[in-house]
Amino acid sequence: MRGRGLPSGLVRIAREASYTSQNNRTEALRLEAVPGEAAHRSSYTACQFPRQGAGKHTWQVPCGTEAGSSRQTSHFFRPRCESHGKLEVVDKRRISSVRVARVTESVGGRIHISYEGIEDDGFWCHERSPLIHPIGWAQVIGHDLRASTEYAKSSLEKALLRKYGSDEASWDMFPTVQSPLCELKFREGMKLEAIDPLNLSAICVATVTRVLRNNYLMIGIDGMMAANGSDWFCYHASSPCIFPVGFCELNNIDLTPPRGHKGEFRWYEYLRHTKSLAAPVSLFKKDIPKHGFQEGMHAEAVDLMEPRLICVGKVTKVVGRLLRVHFDGWDESYDQWCDCESPDLFPVGWCQMVRYPLEPPRQPDTGYLKKKKKYQPYKGPRRKKKMKYVAVWCQMVRYPLEPPRQPDTGYLMKK
């Protein structure tokens, strides 16, 4: 199930292709749920969920706009998923490129994407994911496009003339990205810190490798970049997944240095050694919404290395708008950094509400073989306990009765 992942909906991609490799039940009942206004505000408004000391549980009807936001969510995917709406999507096999794809399924704002022209299972993501774009997006901003010359030409014309087919995603179906307020701009070669798109538990030393149009950037992880740039990833300048130099040190977060770096990493020495400039702090997103997330809160979170799975997650660190999510039952190396407004975070109970399967926490490993129980003296034949009358109430009123859960006996047991 688990492994290293890509941001917001891509399945695992092995870096080896581009370079040489890299407490008790009472407590459980008192888990605090992530507040509705903090999680998944894209397709559903704030929901009131069970909280410690709360007197009632209330739910609100799904809404098409974000709570407290002027941005509108796309209405393209839900009504047109049956007609196989076409759009441009990051290529999961080469994340520095995009491909033409179609929406094949939609559940609660989450959509399944299938690439055109190749045999592939596709992947799941949210309709607000930064991985998906309208027709003509790649040509307009100058991003690498893996498609025919004919498509490249026609998609650019459609984007410029704003004339699309009935099954094509147009620009007005996506939220407008913010433009930098200052006059300074990102330049190629500038250094920064960024969430590794191939390992979401790490924030790494990174470089702006290309500056595209409309304030989009290609970012590469220092010491891990492929020679052909196939593992560069596109972030917008306003992305909450990129940070200024010194961000991790200031907020007591482990910064992953470039591969092969020896000794303690110091930004000043590294910038001098590489003859590089740090990206100005004023270029980065600074607004922090009142999201309500606190350490220890639980939520339902997409496992971004297996984006079809939504798992039980726990917020273990909050730094401004940045959250670290831990998956219950899994090692910390599988944690994920994400933004407080990530479309891959949902309130407790969301999966049940939209009838999407929720992955339970992983059970602790009790060993491959179960140990033999100690000898117990013979106490005579076991007597069958009499069933109390309350136990047959469900049968009497014809209401389904859940059977007792079977104990986990392990994969093999000794005789």
Would you give an account of this structure?
It holds the Pfam family MBT. MBT repeats lie at residues 44-148, 154-258, 265-361. The structure is a single chain. Strands 1, 2, 3, 4, 5 and 6 form a 6-stranded mixed beta sheet that branches. It contains 8 helices and 20 strands. It has 415 residues and is α+β, with helices and mostly antiparallel strands. The two termini are 31 Å apart. The chain is globular, with a radius of gyration of 25 Å.
Structural class: alpha+beta
| CATH topology assignment of the domain at 85-173 | SH3 type barrels
H and E order? HHEEEEEHEHEEEEEHEHEEEEEHEEHE
Number of helices: 8
Shape: globular
Q: Give the CA-CA distance, first to last residue.
A: 31 Å
Radius of gyration: 25 Å
Largest sheet: 6 strands, mixed
Percentage of residues assigned to helices: 10-25%
The CATH class designation of the domain at 85-173 is Mainly Beta
Number of strands: 20
Low-confidence stretches: 1-32, 34-83, 366-391, 409-415
**CATH architecture assignment name of the domain at 85-173:** Roll
